[in-house]
């Protein structure tokens, strides 16, 4: 058996430096300067960049039309524990060379799932101390953990919303184990992605019963973790469809309503994904604005979709204009609440060189960094904030202020309407604002 921890998987690639935009070195950051102060704090603290264990070290490039194109050396051993240790060695080598401080995982990203629940638990119990050693040696932290309750055939009809209670119980056991692993590794948050929590047909679905079960299940998970001393955030990640026809966590507004319905709003926030916003028919800025308005802008899965493909392509972000609008909302909201920027993105099927994984993350980090600089300049240097405030200036009048503070009745509005005459048309100046943003890109 090879010596664990002594193999260099990404040979010829050292720590990724910041060299600035004048550099033509593809393995260097052009805009992401971790220590640079922007809007009062270092870039690294705005972002808390994290590497996704599943796409970066588990993904093989497989698609519905063919097997994987990536042959990872850590997948070669037949012994699942040896393979898990090698994967951890590769993961922490990559994360530290990249200069990121965080990673995220699903339970069975860390080690292959066993044939039984007991065997799966034993494997996780074996690999978690090794992961902890890697974290302590590198200084890399866990942004959040989660559980894969969607890939196994047992979850074909969902996990917490499954019509078979035996599956619900099995999901509960898996979530407990994943929570324990997250707690043991000092995870700052825990994420629930609905996966298959939804329906394929309403003909065989009792929607209210399934929603009630989901609300109760999440409450049990919260109570268990809080009882174990977990003080971090629980996140729900909205997605409208895929793999199910309709998923119960459709978008930010739907999830927020659900959390309030089941009394979960004080413990849960949102982990928003760019590609999921696209699938829901929204912009990511919209989803972030909705979450921020409710104090639930928790974390972000950074990726993008493809306008010509109607599915979750999970490509690395590279659209500075799109991300700049996101960063405007992030800065005006005061930042993320507990979470960070997790690169939930995967290499394209024909990107097969080891350095491609570095190039993808470098490009993603630079896109966010450049967008943050753009948004900060717009807020500091341009008339943009003043123009937005001016549009609502009428609410600074006595009557407008009284309305906002709840001191007017409907009869008062009626009386005011009769005294003020026909309101003038006031331009929204959309084109002016769009042109302003383009000036700073």
UniProtKB/TrEMBL annotation:
Catalytic activity field: alpha-D-xylose = alpha-D-xylulofuranose
Molecular-function annotations in GO: xylose isomerase activity
Positions of Mg(2+) 2 binding: 273, 276, 312, 314
Active site: 106, 109
E.C. number(s) listed in UniProt: 5.3.1.5
Keywords: Carbohydrate metabolism, Cytoplasm, Isomerase, Magnesium, Metal-binding, Xylose metabolism
Main location (coarse class): cytoplasm
Note accompanying the cofactor annotation: Binds 2 magnesium ions per subunit.
Enzyme class: isomerase
Subunit structure: Homotetramer.
Protein family: Belongs to the xylose isomerase family.
Protein known as: Xylose isomerase
Organism annotation: Robiginitalea marina
Lineage: Bacteria, Pseudomonadati, Bacteroidota, Flavobacteriia, Flavobacteriales
């Amino acid at each position: 058996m090879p010596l664990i921890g002594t193999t260099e998987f990404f040979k010829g690639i050292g720590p990724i430096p910041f060299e600035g935009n004048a550099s033509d070195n593809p393995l260097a950051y052009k805009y992401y300067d971790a220590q640079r102060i922007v809007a009062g704090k270092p870039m690294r603290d705005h972002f808390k960049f994290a590497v996704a264990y599943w796409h970066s070290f588990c993904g093989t490039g497989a698609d519905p039309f063919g097997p994987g194109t990536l042959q990872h050396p850590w997948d070669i051993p037949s012994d699942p524990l040896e393979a898990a240790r090698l994967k951890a060695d590769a993961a922490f080598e990559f994360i530290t060379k990249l200069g990121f401080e965080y990673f995220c995982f699903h339970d069975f990203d860390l080690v292959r799932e066993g044939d039984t629940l007991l065997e799966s638990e034993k494997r996780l119990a074996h690999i978690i101390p090794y992961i902890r050693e890697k974290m302590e040696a590198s200084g890399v932290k866990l942004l959040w953990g989660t559980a894969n309750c969607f890939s196994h055939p047992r979850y074909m009809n969902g996990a917490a919303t499954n019509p078979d209670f035996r599956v619900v119980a099995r999901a509960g056991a898996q979530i407990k184990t994943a929570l324990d692993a997250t707690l043991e590794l000092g995870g700052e948050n825990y994420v629930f992605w609905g996966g298959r929590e939804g329906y394929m047909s309403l003909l065989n679905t009792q929607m209210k019963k399934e929603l009630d079960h989901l609300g109760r299940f999440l409450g049990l998970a919260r109570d268990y973790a809080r009882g174990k001393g977990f003080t971090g955030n629980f996140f729900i990640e909205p997605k409208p469809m895929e793999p199910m026809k309709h998923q119960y966590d459709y978008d930010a507004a739907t999830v927020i309503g659900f959390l309030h319905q089941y009394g979960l709003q004080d413990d849960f926030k949102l982990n928003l994904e760019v590609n999921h916003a696209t699938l829901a028919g929204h912009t990511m800025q919209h989803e972030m604005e909705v979450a921020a308005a409710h104090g639930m802008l928790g974390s972000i899965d950074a990726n993008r979709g493809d306008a010509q493909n109607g599915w979750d392509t999970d490509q690395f972000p590279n659209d500075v204009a799109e991300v700049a609008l996101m960063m405007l909302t992030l800065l005006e909201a005061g930042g993320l609440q507990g979470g960070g920027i997790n690169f939930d993105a995967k290499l394209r099927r024909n990107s097969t060189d080891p350095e491609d994984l570095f190039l993808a993350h470098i490009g993603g980090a630079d896109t966010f960094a450049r967008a943050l600089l753009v948004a900060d300049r717009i807020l500091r240097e341009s008339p943009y904030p003043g123009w937005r405030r001016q549009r609502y200036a009428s609410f600074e009048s006595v009557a407008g202020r009284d309305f906002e503070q709840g001191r007017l009745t409907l009869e008062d509005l009626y009386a005011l309407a009769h005294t003020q005459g026909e309101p003038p048309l006031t331009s929204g100046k959309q084109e002016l604002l769009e042109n302003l943003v383009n000036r700073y890109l």
